[in-house]
UniProtKB/TrEMBL annotation, chain A:
GO cellular component term of the entry, any: plasma membrane
Stretches that traverse the bilayer: 20-40, 56-79
InterPro entries: Cation_antiport_E
NCBIfam families: PRK08965.1-3 (NF006519)
Pfam families: MNHE
Keywords: Cell membrane, Membrane, Transmembrane, Transmembrane helix
Membrane disposition: Multi-pass membrane protein
Protein's name in the database: Cation:proton antiporter
GO terms for MF: monoatomic cation transmembrane transporter activity
Subcellular location: Cell membrane
Transmembrane recorded as keyword: yes
Entry keyword Kinase: no
Record family assignment: Belongs to the CPA3 antiporters (TC 2.A.63) subunit E family.
UniProtKB/TrEMBL annotation, chain B:
Coiled coil: none
Keyword terms: Membrane, Transmembrane, Transmembrane helix
Entry's transmembrane regions: 6-29, 41-60, 66-88
Name of this protein: Cation:proton antiporter
Pfam families: PhaG_MnhG_YufB
InterPro entries: PhaG_MnhG_YufB (IPR005133)
Molecular function per GO: sodium:proton antiporter activity
Automatic annotation (TrEMBL), chain C:
Composition bias, Basic and acidic residues: 92-115
Record membrane topology: Multi-pass membrane protein
Keywords on record: Cell membrane, Membrane, Transmembrane, Transmembrane helix, Transport
Family: Belongs to the CPA3 antiporters (TC 2.A.63) subunit F family.
Biased composition (Basic residues): 144-154
Main location: membrane
Designated name of the protein: Sodium:proton antiporter
Bilayer-crossing regions: 6-26, 38-57, 63-87
GO-annotated molecular function: sodium:proton antiporter activity
Entry GO CC: plasma membrane
Pfam families cross-referenced by the UniProt entry: MrpF_PhaF
Amino acid sequence: MNLYVVNLLLAMAWMTLTDSFSLGNMIFGFVLSAAALSLIREQVGSVGYFSKIGRILSLLILFLYELVMSAVRVAILVVKPNMNLKPGIFAYQLQVDRDHEITLLANLITLTPGTLSVDVSEDRSTLYIHALDCSDVDQIRKDIAEGFERKILEAFR
Amino acid sequence: MIDGLADIIAGLMIIAGSTFAFLAAVGLWRLPDIYTRMHSASKTGTVGSGLLLLALAAHVGDTSTVTRALAGVVFFLLTAPISAHLLAKVSYAVGYRLTDISVVDELKK
Amino acid sequence: MSSEFLNFSVQFALVLLSAAFLLTVLKVIKGPTLPDRILALDMLVATAIGFIAVIGLKTGYTLYVDVAIALGLVGFLATVAFARFILARGQTEEGREKKRLEESQKQSETEKPSVEPDTNSKVVEKPSKKPVTAKKTASQKVAKTPRTRSRKTPKKPETKS
């Protein structure tokens, strides 16, 4: 978190020096100062900071990709003359246990292909997910566990 | 040149977004029960309107518009799953049943 | 050339969005259940936001973006409030029937199957092992009857439309 402040300060310095306070310039300054910090990451001990940024970015990219894919999948399904639906609700054992992680996972699941989180059990150990294609529940469980849940655990732990 | 490219990108985004929105509306009619319809409305509908907002941002291109459009898209992406989840949970709790072709229901106690 | 393409795509989008709007409105009118209607209303808000974006692009008024964001906020709050309303309205006919079935199943499990659970006098007369549970279910039943009657009134407009 400390390095994040340093990063922001450097970006502000960049904006002051170039005398332009637009958003694009701020983002550019932020990226630039991040690059500068990454050059000396061994010396200031910021290796963890950069790998964390990388993991959060990869989570974001995965999320956007899955979101577009899910929209395309549902759209194709709707156009098909013969919708071969096998909907159902299945239970999913959660590995994450903090509130914000569960919320994030539930939101991500809702916006990914064919799945929609319906309910969380009282003890917060099970997520109930509605899926459009329940012919292979174990495969969906495996996909979530190895995709989003692993990425969330990587990004926040 | 750059303007022309931005226009073409915006045009493609508009076409894609409106197609998504239309297919989401078709999905509301074709899918069998409330839970499956939620898939259509919450995903395809959100992506559709998000793409249209992004197209506006790409076309106009000044900072304040781009920021506001991006904020709007992020806001929709955050709220759509919450409202879908809430609606699904409540309708299950109140007793709207899954369609007959459903294969599993592990929420049933 | 590029602006021609943009004009064409704006026209195309307006046609498709109008069709989507119409389909969604029809779903609001017809939609067999209340959650269906709420979902269609939610979808209507999303379509309206898309409409606003396209109109804003066509006319060049970027102020429309703020309108779209505000509309999204209101739509989200409306959906949340409607969800609470479904919950407050209580069980559906199907859900109530299912609950009754489950209750009667439970009764037949806890008590002997020969006992008829429908009359109160029998349950009281019988020197059963669990008089507490028997009394409880009986009182529940009494409490439930006026409740179902009162719940019927808000349902009427749904069946009419």
